[in-house]
Specification:
It contains 11 helices and 4 strands. By secondary structure, it is α+β, with helices and mostly antiparallel strands. Strands 3-2-1-4 form a 4-stranded mixed β-sheet.
């Protein structure tokens, strides 16, 4: 058995998530990487990004993270289903004795503390405000990488900070 399975905290996280459904992952609510240059986002680095609808954003700017696509995946999770796009984690869980990234991402302090809010209020398909990575452009990203900086991002934790940055970007 792997060392991770011996860690009581990760066992607790897995058991708690699995009590909702074998596909529950808090990253769909608490994580987002926005690639503004392409108009895509995703909540985890494993699945492909998906397009952010300009119509959704015009109706509600929170659609930068709360896209219809993502809300449908959250709904699947709350119904006990395993979203198809999360097949990387399902492969790890189904074919090994290791925890997948859904356990590790869900166990982060900025995610785990909101677990009850997401799990018990099953109509909550919107995100909780969390750290947000915003990739401004590929050119900026490549320039920063050559200087040894991994990401061009902001860590936003409050709605006001996020709104301020988006306003500065003209979004």
């Amino acid at each position: 058995m792997s060392e991770a399975f011996e860690n009581p905290f990760f066992v607790e996280v897995k058991d708690s998530l699995d009590s909702v459904g074998k596909g529950m992952c808090l990253a769909k609510w608490t994580q987002v990487t926005m690639q503004l240059q392409t108009g895509h986002n995703h909540s985890c680095h494993h699945p492909a990004t998906h397009k952010i609808s300009e119509l959704e954003i015009a109706r509600n700017p929170s659609a930068l993270h709360n896209t219809k696509f993502k809300k449908l995946r959250r709904k699947e999770m709350l119904e006990g289903k395993r979203p198809e796009e999360c097949d990387y984690c399902w492969g790890v869980e189904d074919n090994s004795d290791r925890f997948s990234d859904r356990i590790f991402k869900s166990s982060e302090s900025w995610s785990w503390e909101y677990k009850e809010e997401m799990i018990t209020y099953t109509n909550n398909l919107k995100s909780i405000t969390m750290p947000t990575k915003v990739r401004l452009c590929n050119k900026c990203y490549k320039k920063q990488r050559t200087k040894g900086i991994d990401w061009v991002d902001w860590e936003l934790t409050l709605d006001e900070e996020r709104d301020l940055k988006l306003k500065e970007l003209g979004i």
